[in-house]
User: What shape does this take?
Amino acid sequence: MKKYLVTGGAGYVGSVVAAHLLEAGHEVTVLDDLSTGHREGVPAGATLIDGRIQDAARHLDGSFDAVLHFAASSQVGESVVNPSKYWENNVGGTLELLAAMRAAGVRTLVFSSTAATYGEPADGPLTETSVTAPTNPYGASKLAVDHMIAGECAAHGLAAVSLRYFNVAGAYGPYGERHDPESHLIPLVLQVALGQRGSISVFGDDYPTPDGTCVRDYIHVADLAEAHLAALETATPGEHLVCNLGNGSGFSVREVIETVRKVTGHPVPEVVAPRRPGDPAVLVASAATARDRLGWTPTRSDLAGIVSDAWEFARRRAADGPAGA
Assistant: This one.
């Protein structure tokens, strides 16, 4: 058994990873200020510390084997209008976390990075050597943290893995997406199926794709969690390993909508809206590095399965009402 600190472990991905760590027999402490996370999202068996990432130095000591770092501000639109929040939380907070880890002698880190570091790529599938050109402060802050971690590895021997997520989706039992505001396609379409919104907006239907709508790479959150456990075993002192996490193929906006219709049995009205600035036609990952270095291959790549898990979670939340929201 090992002991892990999970920052942001009350959020969507953090809670699923914390659950997987507990199921593997490890001891888990979650550090989360619950500003976007949810107390009920912390798995039973984990210890919750209500605090910010900047508080990590108060709680880290040599008894911890590693840190899994999910705590971040993550709304692209908000980052454009309030960039200082993203530099303070994502960059400044991680800088303090790295210092706390160094002082405590905790020498292994798995970092929640993002495909937003690549910006608007012209081609794909994207590899870890593709050009990084983020188009918003959120992506820029995550890329800055990747650079910080690389420096920490080189200078101080940190063993670190940055996992760049593409479109995370699905649910894992009681753990699923509950963002406010919600910006991800699958939960938004499920809200239409639940009658919580009247229609789903399709932002552009004239892209150079088979049906004219954007194509994205969707990865099941449980597959993502398994990659984090593999990264803990792979992390090597002095090395900063970067891995894309995706399925290597994509689904269009209209494919997602049609899949939701089939899975839920509900009509999902759609409204075509103008393209959003910065939306690339296709954003798909090559996960070859994760396969080769982590020994990881996603096993839940079926879109209907991903949607079905998300649908079960959304239905439970709707049935629970405001208390379970």
Observations:
- The chain has ten helices and 14 strands.
- The radius of gyration is 19 Å.
- The chain has a mean pLDDT of 93.
